[in-house]
Amino acid sequence: MERDNNQLMAAKDLICIVLAAGKGTRLKSEVAKVLHRAGGRTLIEHVVTACQPLGGNILVVVGHQAENVRAAVTPFKATTVLQRPQNGTGHAMLIARNAIGPKARLAVVLPGDAPLIRTEMLSALIDAHRRGGAAATVLTAQLDDPTGYGRIIRNRDGSVAAIAEEKSATEAERKIHEVNSSIYCFTLEKLWPCLAEVRPENAHHELYLTDAIAQLNKRKERVLAVMAGSAREILGCNTRGELAEADRVFRARKAAALMDDGVTIYLPETVLIDGEVEVGSDSVIEPGVQLLGKTRIGPHCRIQSGSVLTDAALEHHVLVRQHSVITATLLSAGAIVGPFAHLREGTELRAGARVGNFVEVKKSVLGEGVKAMHLTYIGDATVGRESNIGAGTITCNYDGVKKNPTIIGERVFVGSDSALVAPVRVGDGAYIAAGSTVTEDVPADALAIARGRQVNKAGWAAERRRKMSEENTVASDGGKTADETRGRRSAARALRKRNPQRQQGKKSSRK
Ligand code: UD1
Ligand code: MG
Fold it and tell me: Which partner from 93, 274, 343, 362 sits 20 to 30 angstroms from 174, CA to CA?
């Protein structure tokens, strides 16, 4: 509680500035870098949500695809300022200055492409900065391969002397493994005069924020470093490879957190679980499963291999069999789905309902204990409790213009291969004969038969077989040409017509 109060107090003079105006040339993409995704969210969303608990205002510098980046951050109550053209990270800070209120004394500055940063690390950075009475504090990390990052050059007393960018670093500086995360804490009144001294003297003719560190040293200001415990926390996503690496870390973090909470995950490196997903204890996630968006799974559920759940809600003891695709659907306790089921937006399965293989359900409610086990489409329908939907049943919900509802009562038996042409109602306890095309309402407890009446023609099949074997005998009359055979067949037919007696005689002589 005391810490919360301290944070709130501290937040008054704090501003978080996220630099997100760059294009991200190295991604070779039409989409701005910070809008690429890792762990199911855009990079910029991760950074902004890490800042949120710090309590200060959040200002995002936008430029490339400014509108889209703005749209991504405004739900998080961040304000934005436009940097155009984008003349480097130092220039981005100068632009931010125009949008910073007078109360802010301290700024946490972050790049929009470092999504793995955690709030705890940022708090530790601010604490160190305040305690050390520094003008600037740089978050650094020790990397096995520092290629591409700015290198940290230390003074003898351990404070930071300068940051050398890869391209302008000397041979000796390139051998340094401590790198700049691009995450800093600045005392703003100390930063501004130094930033004014920075010149665009580099390969890209840009103003680098990193050059402000040497300027601060020139003015004898104190620049400290805080080293991140884990190097991966500062990973900047400049390339597709780094993006994949960040995604892998998010997935691993999420799977580990769920396992800590009592969820069994087999081969966790093969599952894809978004950050906001919730799973109850004693639930089991099999290999190759994807749990996306705001999916919430209760306790004692099992999600089998290859299933993809997006924004789904599952109560307890739900079984999702292999390769089911479930979107924006509610599965109540004890429901069983799949294998190979497709449950689409607006679907609800009440307790104990079952949907089997090759069944698609859209915007429909299946009551308690309803079964639709094979090869069925149910769309815009309500099915009452304990009803059975036979194999191959189709609700014909679309009339070419609009969608129409199908209302099926309780304990209804829909025979296999039935088509229910909506809008249509089937009353409680009714039966629909297999193969029916139901176009009119069916009263409760009635039997609806809506198909051609069956006609049995006695002996028809036997007669057909006899004719065919006779024709085959004629055709196989050795060594004839096709024309000759055809000629002989029509001659035989003409003979039979003219003299049926003779044919009868032939038959009986065969007996
Ligand atoms: C930067 C640092 C480098 C550090 C690395 C860590 C500089 C000069 N270099 O390099 O020391 O090791 O981050 O990941 O700062 N941006 C703007 N406006 C601009 C240019 C960039 O807003 O004019 C934004 C980008 O959108 C990005 C962030 O600033 O989110 C950093 O830019 P980026 O191009 O990724 O810098 P790096 O080369 O990674
Ligand atoms: Mg970067």
Answer: 93
Residue nearest to atom 8 of ligand 1 (CA): 208
Give per-residue pLDDT as tens, 431-480. Answer: 999 999 999 999 999 999 999 999 999 999 999 999 999 999 887 765 55
Task: Map out the domains of the chain as residue ranges.
Answer: 5-234, 256-448
Question: Is 436's C-beta closer than 6 angstroms to any atom of ligand 1?
Answer: no
Helix or strand or coil: residue 136?
A: strand
Tell me, using a 6 A CB cutoff, whether residue 236 lines ligand 1.
yes
Could you tell me if 340 and 320 are in contact, meaning their C-beta atoms sit under 8 angstroms apart?
A: no
Pairing of strands 406-408, 106-111: unpaired
Residue among 25, 48, 69, 113 whose CB has most ligand 1 atoms within 8 A, to mutate = 113
**Ligand 2: centre distance to CA 237 (Å):** 6
Whether residue 46 lies in the annotated active site: no
In angstroms, what is the span from residue 23 Cα to ligand 1's centroid? 10
What average pLDDT does the structure give for the chain?
93
Ligand 2 centroid distance, CA of 43 (Å): 11
Q: What is the pLDDT of residues 146-197, one digit of tens each?
A: 999 999 999 999 999 999 999 999 999 999 999 999 999 999 999 999 999 9
Tokens representing 183?
């995450």
Our measurement of the distance from residue 297's CA atom to the centroid of its chain's CA atoms, rounded to an integer in Å, reads 16
Question: pLDDT tens across 119-160, in order?
Answer: 999 999 999 999 999 999 999 999 999 999 999 999 999 999
Span 256-448 CATH architecture: 3 Solenoid (2.160)
What is the signed CA dihedral for 218, 223, 229, 231, rounded to 10 degrees?
Answer: -30
**21-to-82, 108, 214, 226 alpha-carbon distances in Å:** 8, 17, 24, 26
